[in-house]
Write a structure and sequence with these properties.
It comes from Streptomyces marokkonensis. This is Cyclic Di-GMP phosphodiesterase RmdA. With 715 residues, the protein is α/β, with parallel strands linked by helices. It contains 23 helices and 21 strands. It starts with 7 loop residues before the first helix and ends in a 25-residue tail after the last strand.
Length: 715
């Protein structure tokens, strides 16, 4: 057994050798096999270069296919053997160093381009032969009598030696003569086609115009026509041809015969069908793929008035766990089993199942009434997934979430339908999975709006669409303004002013909360400096302080401390002018690493406030280790104080929290104060500061000076 080639050139020559050995037996050439191999070597080099090129060039691959025809490889078997060699050996011998999956995909595209180039060159050659034959036939009619014998000899040579099938019939359709090539195409020996009539060669796949063109030709109304036509062979198989039929006239121009020229395109058609199947079906499961599904969906949506459609969008619950724990091979076997079960669920007319990719499948039903059919189809799918699937000796339980979209044809585009189904599927998954949900236009609109806001966030920050409103913090003892909480707003071009509840979760999800929070802090600290410059560091209202909210994402960002220091230094503001508010839920179970940035900020002089205190079910003993100086009591504890008398239980709770906080040297701020009675009750309970609509709604910074000497009990 010979050793494997060492260098790229040796591998290339080995591939050319294999190629020549496969193709040479079916090639009509006078060359020896080594000579033929030398002719294939530059073609192999071109294929290798196409395979490894930075960008795929189909023209070069088509040129190689055409060069095969120039090398007398005109037999369809030569193309089939060439494609087999390229498929089996090109990547092996010429793809060293490349990504195997990418090379295999490129090899498939290369084969398709070679087949197209081969077919185009063979067709051009055939047309040239057809033209030569037609010219010979016409010359045979018009030559003078003394040259008739020589002309007949030339015509006979072309007739018998042509690579395409040739048949001559009279105007009644009776076959008079056929050549050897045509008999080989039909798989018969001897002149058994003689005596048959052309009208007998009908086929169910004949194009509608085929026989109309034939009738026009035999009536003398046209000189020739060209169609793609199928014929039944005697053994029952189908022969596909490019058929050209020409009318032959006598010396006086009277129609006399019809001449048929046939090119066998069966192999090429089968190749095209195979490539079409591979392009429209999933390689793993055999189900229609995304491309084929969209064709069917678009057809269903354009079916016309009175027609409806139903679509079930399935995503397997927890499929990633299977891949991670058992491996992708087990995951693939699971997908194949799921595909088989889904295929068994969609067997009625107008139903189909497709795989979109990964563990996502779709089932489509169409017809005059799909209002309940889609739900029934989803129910069958859920039932089909109940039985466990055995993979590598393990019984795996498969569950799925399904989004259902149903409606009338013509109302929405395929992309809109699939988007609605995808949104609905995720709604089912968010509700716990293993269920199906019906599409809800209002829910779709909310998700689409949410997505639009998410994608617009980065540009909004760059365009300066955010602004800050300030809500005063009032001292309950003397009614003076001690500072304000900064509340960011988004002035959206379409939706108007949006509150933080509309976009802060989106910013946290996308990571934009860090640059947005940094911007809010800098703008707020600059405003605090402006206030202090206006009112002085220690005026009758006391030192004004700005409260800025920190999200959990900012809390864990490694640049929090440095960003804060840079902002304070850049604005020239003392640390005691800044209070950072952190929600209680963000600090539940916080370890020392999470608390370290807050401790560093507190040591610098920045106040830390524990926001929404009382909603996080935290251990009160944890207050001792948290670097906080302010408790912001959640409004849920003080709502009952808006009326008189207040709930005694709430009074006791607030009184106890205030006492605990003061014993730990913590100030207490109350949110949501809306009435004078509520403010007075909180003052009596010993709360330090408060904020709420009773004092002022959030507004521009210029309004703060109007509130500097407000009496908290006199509003």
């Amino acid at each position: 057994m010979s050793a494997e080639p060492d260098g790229p050139e040796d591998r290339l020559r080995r591939f050319a050798t294999i190629w020549s050995r496969a193709v040479f037996p079916v090639t009509s050439t006078s060359s020896t096999r080594p000579e033929f191999e030398q002719r294939l070597l530059p073609l192999a080099r071109r294929l290798s270069e196409v395979l490894r090129a930075r960008s795929f060039d189909a023209r070069e691959a088509r040129a190689v296919g055409a060069a095969l025809v120039d090398s007398h490889c005109t037999d369809p078997e030569a193309l089939a053997r060439t494609l087999d060699c390229v498929d089996a050996y090109l990547v092996l011998y010429c793809g060293e160093g490349g990504d195997p999956e990418d090379l295999r995909a490129r090899s498939a595209r290369l084969q398709h381009a070679m087949a197209a180039g081969f077919a185009a060159a063979l067709r051009a050659r055939t047309l040239a032969e057809q033209e030569a034959i037609a010219q010979a036939a016409l010359k045979a009619q018009g030559v003078v009598a003394e040259a008739l014998h020589a002309s007949e000899a030339r015509f006979r040579a072309v007739f018998e030696g042509a690579a395409i099938g040739i048949g001559i019939a009279d105007l009644e359709g009776n076959v008079l003569q056929v050549n050897e090539a045509l008999m080989r195409m039909f798989g018969i020996a001897g002149p058994t086609l003689g005596g048959r009539r052309a009208s007998e060669w009908t086929h169910p796949d004949d194009a509608p115009q085929t026989w109309r063109l034939y009738d026009e030709l035999v009536r003398g109304e046209r000189e020739h026509y060209h169609v793609e036509k199928a014929f039944y062979r005697p053994d029952g198989t189908v022969l596909w041809t490019n058929l050209t039929v020409s009318l032959l006239r006598d010396a006086d121009g009277v129609p006399q015969y019809q001449l048929a020229l046939m090119e066998d395109t069966t192999e090429r058609r089968l190749l095209n069908l195979r490539l079409r199947y591979e392009a429209t079906h999933d390689a793993l499961t055999g189900l229609p793929n995304r491309s084929f599904f969209f064709e069917r969906l678009e057809k269903a949506l354009n079916a016309g008035p009175g027609r409806r459609f139903g679509l079930c969008y399935l995503d397997l619950d927890g499929f990633k766990t299977v891949n991670d724990s058992l491996g992708h091979a087990a995951g693939d076997r699971l997908l194949v089993e799921v595909a088989d079960r889904l295929q068994a669920c969609a067997t009625a007319p107008g139903e189909m199942v497709a795989r979109l990719g990964g563990d996502e499948f779709v089932a489509l039903t169409s017809g005059p009434d799909t209002r309940h059919e889609a739900e029934e189809l989803a129910g069958r799918i859920m039932n089909a997934l109940l039985a466990p699937i055995s993979i590598d000796g393990r019984e795996l339980t498969v569950r799925g979430s399904i989004g259902i979209v149903e409606g009338s044809a013509g109302e929405r585009s395929p992309a809109e339908v699939l988007r609605s189904a995808d949104i609905t599927m995720y709604r089912a998954k968010s509700a716990g999975g293993n269920r199906f949900e019906l599409a809800d236009p209002e829910a779709d609109a909310r998700v689409i709006t949410r997505h639009g806001l998410t994608t617009a966030l980065p540009a909004a920050l760059e365009r300066g669409e955010f602004f800050i409103e300030y809500q005063p913090l009032v001292h309950l003892g003397d009614g003076t303004v001690r500072g304000a909480e900064a509340l960011v707003r988004w002035l959206h071009p379409q939706h108007g002013v949006l509150g933080p509840d509309r976009f802060i979760p989106l910013a946290e999800h996308t990571g934009l909360i860090v640059p947005l929070g940094r911007w809010v802090m800098e703008q707020s600290v600059r405003q605090a400096r402006a206030w202090r410059e206006r009112y002085g560091e220690t005026t009758a209202v006391g030192p004004l302080r700005i409260n800025v909210n920190l999200s959990p994402c900012q809390l864990t960002h490694p640049g929090l401390v440095q960003d804060t220091v840079d902002i304070l230094e850049r604005t020239g503001v003392a640390p005691d002018a800044l209070c950072l508010e952190v929600t209680e839920s963000a600090l539940i179970g916080a370890d020392d690493d999470l608390l370290k940035p807050l401790r560093r900020l507190a040591e610098m002089g920045v106040d830390i406030a524990l926001d929404d205190f009382g909603t996080g079910y935290s251990n009160l003993a944890n207050l001792r280790r948290l670097p906080v100086s302010v408790l912001k009591l959640d409004r849920s504890f003080t709502q009952s104080m808006q009326q008189f008398p207040a709930d005694p239980v709430d009074l006791k709770i607030v009184e106890g929290i205030v006492a605990l906080a003061h014993s730990l040297d913590l100030a207490v701020t109350v949110e949501g104060v809306e009435t004078g009675a509520q403010a007075e009750q909180l003052r009596i309970l010993g709360c330090d500061t408060a904020q709420g609509w009773y004092y002022a709604r959030p507004g521009p910074p210029e309004r703060l000076h109007d509130l500097t000497l407000v009496d908290a009990a006199g509003l």
